[in-house]
Fold these 4 entries.
Entry 1:
Amino acid sequence: MGGITITRYGDTEKEVLDKLREQVVHGASLGLYPDSAVILIRGDDLIGYGEGDAKEADKKKAKLFNIKLDEQALTVEFEEVEEGRIFHVGVAARYSKAPEPGQILGTVHLHT
């Protein structure tokens, strides 16, 4: 058993999702499959987090995308959802650099 947390950065959601799509397809070719939703975090949403009005800070949240992997065709589609399974987000948060303002961090976990 093994797994990997993948983190990619970009300027647009499409750019980050495309990078993660490539990684999911590559992982599937090696026997690793997504066991979590994709999480996107905007650097702009982190500015001032924890400062000022706590209610405003609570409005900042990540976007979640469920993954639809067609193992035969090796294609990946993403579906935005309000709730999803998220694993190892703490790993990505702890060991990855925070996204800069204007930048988006995307992360997903793959497992055997």
Entry 2:
Amino acid sequence: MQIDRDNGTVRFSNGLEICPALTQDAFRALPAGSKARSQDYGTLPWIHYHLSGGQINGKELLVSLCFYDQLLVFVSVSADLYPPGPKDWSNYSLEVEAATKQFHDRLLEQMLGNPSKGAGFLLGRLPDVKETLERPLRWEFAWGSVFSSHDSRGGGTDITVRYGTRLEEANKAYQRRSAAR
């Protein structure tokens, strides 16, 4: 996986390339788009597509693209550090989530340098589970930002590539649309 510092394009080892200008229709026309699992959570025109991003360092990358109608709002990526088997709450582990967060942090620091907000690894020591999960990191660029964080409510640990103010703009458009109904 590689995130282009100049424009926010995300490239994966399986050949998938997600650029900020990608529309939902263009994504669906791609081979990866036709195989992706879509989920709308009952909030159309918001829609998420879930697919594989190949592997990095032997770990499978799980990718989610979020669109508001045709607009790509963000890309979310998570390395799968769980052992083989069912992927459900019965196997959930804060220790694995912390290891995932550390994996993401190291990857992003190697790729993007020191974060703009948040602290990198502390004086050569690895933080404990709680400290790791509560330490979001953020890299800011002219085109948007990259986050490494853990969602304590939803339980997920992700790298999120956000494009400018698209999320805020899409939320406002959805609120206006919902109020007009």
Entry 3:
Amino acid sequence: MKKLLLLLSLNLVSLVTAQDWSAQRLLADPDKFIGQKVTLWIFNVRVPAHNATDDVNFRDFSVYTAKRINTTYEGGGYIDVRVSRQDASSFTKKYGTTTDYKIARQFVGTFRSENGTFLVDASGAP
């Protein structure tokens, strides 16, 4: 019985940890996640994009992430997110520019390092 309770406890801990897809979690041990598909919980997007005036096929935004703990959210720090230039407008509309601590939306991309900066890339660029 004790082994079963221990096993259930460990599964619950791993479930709670799996839900904490925040910038803080990714940046605490970035080498562990490089090249992996990750899911962020996003509270809001800072506009304009860092490269809003650059002639490139993508836009890099700073996003404020959330830690999801069961059904509630807490602040999880900032990280950059890359989306294709054509998706930039719909991205900012979907994730919003103001914070409602009751709502965070999922974003999926590949965790990368570029020029000493970590980012989550969903631009489709190689």
Entry 4:
Amino acid sequence: MGTVTNGEILRVSVRMKGPNAQDIVNVFHFQAIFADSQDDEDVVAIINTWLNVSYGSIHDRLPSVMSPYDYKVDVVAWSAYKLHIVRNIGTFLWTLTAPPNGTGDYMPAGVAALLKFTTGAGKHYGRKFIGPLLEADITAGSLTAGAISTLSALATLWLDQADISVGNVLQPGIVHNLSGTFLPFLDAVVNAVAAYQRRRKPNVGS
């Protein structure tokens, strides 16, 4: 492995398996704000902790038929209006200390909660989906107050930087799709109305 340097952008693709073995993916971007370059192992370790704490906070809202699978970490850079992989740090098995254990019936696989993260740059915001949702967390197409409260706490965790050591942090955000500028997340909101996220079945589609 190598090192991550100050200012580099990381893309972390996090994958769970749904009740029908479909991929359920969220993608996170971080900018390295480092006083000193950091070993890949230390960067991956803090990403794992950040994911473990955040997803663990909603483990009882996720159906027990879901299972964490892996996460892929890449160093990326903006070129020709697109993010390109500069270096693949690795793909790692994902084991949650508190895995999904929600009980009861669940909604169709694509029904999800939508969390939006503002950046202060007009219509540029981050989106993260959580699902499938338990039927008990949906009433007339909207999330219950309890579900919104839990997901709001999750959003707060996803606003927090990941601290490797003093002066060496990973700042979550997105990359501006025109300028390539990194935009840190500023605030978050949970949509009260349930959303829909396409789920990919293995070996189907591109």
